[in-house]
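Extended Data, panel c. Modelled sequence:
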Amino acid sequence: MDHNLLRQFVAAAHHLHFAHAAKELGVPRSTVVSSVRTLEATLGYDLFEKDAQATLLTTAGAEFLVDAERQLNASAAAAKASAAKPGGKAKASKGKGRAPVVKGERRPGRRTQGR
């Protein structure tokens, strides 16, 4: 399951407001709504009540919320465990191969013009 879809669903479910969830995630509201619709199409059932005045989770949506949070926590733990440990040999960047040009200095390897 796509982690972006799960993150957006979890935010919408916690806020029970698509615009607030979108603001928290830093994405447009339409992105959150389309992500929830995609998730609903993938799962085959509604996660939010369509007829309610306010945004409400269905019972299936509440059950899926627990599962989605568990999946996100498991993937975050796996990513943290697989991260490189600090320390070890430092590697310097190689740059462009020569020192930066200083105004007024000759470039190395260039001969001066004779008269």
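The CA atoms of residues 106 and 115 lie 17 Å apart. This feature is highlighted in the accompanying rendering.
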